Amino acid sequence: MKQTFDAIIVGAGIMGLTLAHALKKRFPDIRLCILEKEPRIGLHASGRNSGVLHSGIYYKAGSLKAKLCAEGARKMAEYCEAHHLPIKKIGKVILPTRIDEDRQLDELCHRAKVNGVVARIIDSKELKVLEPAVISPTGRALHVPHTSVVDSKAILECLSHQLEQQGVKIILNAALEEIRGEASFLRVNGSEVRYTFLYNTAGQHADTIAHQLGAGMRYILLPFKGIYWALSSKAPIVCNGLIYPVPDLKLPFLGVHVTKTVEDKIYLGPTAVPAFGREHYRGFSGIDFLEGLKILYYLARQYGSNQQGFRAFTHQEAFRFFKKYFVQAAQALLPQLKAEDLLPSNKVGIRAQLFDKEKQALEMDFVVVRKENAVHILNAVSPAFTCSFSFSEYVVESYR
What we know:
This protein is an alpha+beta fold. The chain has 10 helices and 21 strands.
């Protein structure tokens, strides 16, 4: 059976769904189809999201992340409220874990002002009131009061149901078998599909699809595994909101932090260790031998060149795979924490981090590449979930 659509979206994660939402809003009569290779939505990055609506405090002024994050968080909060989806404003504190990180705290405060984020430096007395289990070695912390948490899976389900009601066709179990850009043609489940325009929001596989269409050849995805531990309900530790360390601003990772869900469950993590496959969540499942070799090759080059201080980061993260060293990292935030306070968790994700082969560096910003009648959303990593509504509107308006 042959089918024809005005636009095809590959991938039904948060970017694919919000992009469809933006397209239907801009072009109500568009014939639109979303292809998802899995039997249901939310099995990968979007469904494994922490649920934190990031404020936009970390990102360098002028970057897409800085431009889109605060507005994206507002739009996501409005969507949750309009559709009666869980959302809690619990706030965030960011604190230095070493004396020499105090200047970075000031830099984050400056970025907050430039990016339109409400945040202020607080002293140890105010910190004690907000988070009694936390101690700052410099006596200061940054408080971001409006940071909220949401239920990412509930948002995905609501969006997909809404889109189907608007006539968007969502096809599950629809892995691409063939794609030919010059003919605007692809094949799924033995059926031919024609399109006028294609949007690639395939997340952990976005670079592969882009390369098949001759786009984004300078980039390759390097997957990093994020493992979390759960805080035991018996632990004598109170966490009222989100607690983050001052991050290394040269790298796109935020370090081990304390996350609280809308159900008030508390997790610590994530790690950022290399994964040996794009879906290598646990054990040997998802390991791709050939791709693992390719990943190791680029990681070794990055380690050798030590761009972005990658060597020290590698040493640090490699040990955090083991509970003993993970606990040590977490104790920088929660000094009273003991190993027995952390329980194994099934919460694990893959960060689809883009690597720029020309710059020999991990890409810090979102990357959008257009070639002919296809737009490829690459490096849609954190805070992509937060930004998704504003990010999708940006793509629709900028890449028509």
